[in-house]
């Protein structure tokens, strides 16, 4: 039996867009849903980094393009981006801990977009996600990257869990996969 639903696929394929559509559909059926998604920050047409946006409307930086090449040891970097772990945790951890108060009778949906390299710099985030996947009061609707390079422990753990249904989003299916994802989330809530 699936208890959680994850989307995977290459960057820019439309995972976040699908997550937002599913979230809107759930909200309009009065399903309790919370969580966060990641949004590109563009400036003059160039990508400057990513923001975390919670479903309650709070926003803060996740990462920014590093302006200088000298990096301090403490910096968490993914390619050209420096990850602001403190900002990420400040926004996301209260949301995840709050959602955990769901019950079996009224399962909450928690959107986690995404569980990727940048987010995994936060040990507290990893712990919170593991707790949520193990608990029974919350259905996680999340996104994970497709395997590339060195495997990410938590991502592989999720991919291989028996209680997780994974949808692979592609150009071919992204416009007609919405109902399937919604149906999967609904069956996880039963």
Automatic annotation (TrEMBL):
Record's keyword terms, sorted: ATP-binding, Hydrolase, Nucleotide-binding
Pfam families hit by this protein: NTPase_1
Domain AAA+ ATPase: 1-170
Domain of life: Eukaryota
Keyword Hydrolase: yes
UniProt-recorded Gene Ontology molecular function terms: ATP binding; ribonucleoside triphosphate phosphatase activity
Keyword Nucleotide-binding assigned: yes
InterPro entries assigned: AAA+_ATPase, Nuc-triphosphatase_THEP1, P-loop_NTPase
HAMAP family, per database record: NTPase_1 (MF_00796)
Protein name (Swiss-Prot/TrEMBL): Nucleoside-triphosphatase, cancer-related
Species of the source: Phasianus colchicus (Common pheasant)
């Amino acid at each position: 039996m699936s208890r959680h639903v994850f989307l995977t696929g290459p960057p820019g394929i439309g995972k976040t867009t699908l997550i937002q559509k599913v979230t809107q559909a759930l909200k309009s059926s009065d399903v309790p849903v919370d969580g966060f998604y990641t949004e590109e920050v563009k400036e003059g047409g160039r990508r400057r980094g990513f923001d975390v946006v919670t479903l309650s409307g709070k926003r803060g930086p996740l990462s920014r393009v590093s302006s200088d090449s000298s990096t301090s040891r403490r910096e968490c970097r993914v390619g050209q981006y420096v990850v602001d772990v403190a900002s990420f945790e400040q926004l996301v951890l209260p949301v995840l801990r709050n959602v955990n108060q769901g019950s079996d009778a009224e399962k909450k949906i928690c959107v986690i977009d995404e569980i990727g390299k940048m987010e995994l710099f936060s040990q507290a985030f990893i712990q919170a996600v593991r707790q949520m996947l193990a608990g029974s009061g919350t259905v996680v609707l999340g996104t994970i990257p497709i395997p590339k390079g060195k495997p990410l422990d938590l991502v592989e753990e999720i991919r291989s869990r028996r209680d997780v249904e994974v949808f692979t989003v592609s150009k071919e299916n992204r416009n007609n996969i919405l109902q399937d994802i919604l149906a999967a989330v609904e069956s996880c809530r039963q």
